Amino acid sequence: MLAGVALGSFITERAAHAQYAGQMSSIVMDARTGAVLAQDDPDLRRYPASLTKLMTLYMAFSALRAGTITLDQSVPVSIHASIMEPSKLGLVPGSHLTVEQAILALVTKSANDAACALGELLGGGSEPQFAAMMTQQARALGMTNTTFRNASGLPDPEQLTTARDLAVLARHIVTDFPEDYHYFSVAAFRFHGRMIPNHNPMLKVYAGADGMKTGYTQEAGHNLVTSAIRNDVRLVGVVLGASSNGQRTIAMANQLDRGFDAEGVAPVPRPLVLARNTVSARRTRGGRVIMLAAASARHAPLEVAEAPTGRRSLRHGRRYVLATPVTGGHHVRLIGAKVRPATATTHRTRSGRSSRNHT
Questions:
Q1: 11-32: buried (b, 16+ CB within 10 Å) or exposed (e) per residue?
Q2: Catalytic status, residue 88
Q3: What is the DSSP string of 134-186?
Q4: Which of 50, 82, 152, 227 is catalytic?
Q5: Which residues pair with 284 in a beta bridge?
Q6: Is there a domain that residue 308 lies in?
Q7: Residues 47, 220 contacting (CB under 8 angstroms)
Q8: H helices of 161-310, where?
Q9: Is the dihedral of CA 146, 147, 149, 154 positive or negative?
């Protein structure tokens, strides 16, 4: 029986990887009505990668709304959480972080150790139990083709979803938790003396984009969920299985443009895209300029970070911001006729406890 289960999992993984290699799935919806404005193979079952964290965040927002957890509540870090593969904060077993820090870590760095720790808190100490709760919640939202097996999105052959289901989840995050949606636009936050920047490139390259989440594993490809608002029209878009960061960004921008056009919203010129996975950075040492090439594909991280932008998000007097300046030597790709320079500023986080409005 065990051999049969193992063989079934192997076949599932090989079939999904082989069937959809190089093929994208995408969809864009009106966030208010749920009307589908553009789509391309939206019902293929695929690996969500770190888009899984959108459901982890939905569950956290739901628990905050119910009062079963609080933003400043301590989240214990287990050995299991600490050994999660990157991206991660590097949490140490026996240490703690707050619920709000965990939320910010998921949104910005897509930290797998923070996701696991938060999932264990919400799942009564068990990540598998939390994954079962996630799947149950998915069914309640109408995500009929989605199954979760962990809180982070690290590879599991049985953890599957579709572009349509993720668009449904994104709509619910926007409409069910308007008091929490602002977290997705946080450019960076300070954790233990270091600034953690946001991975989401759409925040800086697409007019009106204000969230949500990136995702990448070798099996899943480059995934992205984005919400953008123009002229009081909010759209949610999903791209799964892109071959690169640049391809998923362009695909997302194109489908959102089609969606806004279908809604009668005038187009907006796009700025340049900074593709971090093809970046070379300069460092000066002893009067010499040293060129540092980007990581090779063989050592590619599970989540690919891209340069953040200096945007602000305010919540009850607390300011989360920041971005490091863009350094020389970056390769850029143009996706529009109008080019604006990339700028960034650095701000400090205000001290003090955060409060929460219940709506």
A1: eebeebbeebeeebbbbbbbbe
A2: no
A3: HHHHHHHHT-TT-B---SS----TT-BB-HHHHHHHHHHHHHH-TTTGGGGG-
A4: 50
A5: 289
A6: yes
A7: yes
A8: 163-176, 202-205, 245-262
A9: negative
pLDDT tens digits for range 345-356 = 333 333 333 434
Helix (H, G, I), strand (E, B) or coil at 221: strand
Helix (H) or strand (E) run with residue 188 in it: strand 188-191
pLDDT, residue 283, reads 40
Active site residue 50: yes
CB atoms within 10 A of CB 231: 11
CA gyration radius, the chain: 20
- For a pLDDT cut of 70, what percent of the chain falls above it? 69
5-14, 67-76, 246-255: segment of lowest average pLDDT: 5-14
The reply to whether 82 belongs to the active site is no
Instruction: Give the global pTM.
Output: 0.75
Structure tokens at 163: 């572009």
Number of domains in the chain: 1
Exactly one of 110, 152, 185, 227 is catalytic; which is it?
Answer: 110
Q: Which residues contact 143 (CB under 8 A, 6 or more apart)?
A: 161, 165, 166, 168, 169
User: Of the residues 25, 26, 53, 213, which is catalytic?
Assistant: 53
CATH number assigned to the domain comprising residue 77: 3.40.710.10
Dist. CA 340–CA 51, nearest whole Å = 29
Q: Which residues form the domain of 297? A: 22-333
DSSP tag of 13: H
Please report whether residue 10 resides in a domain: no
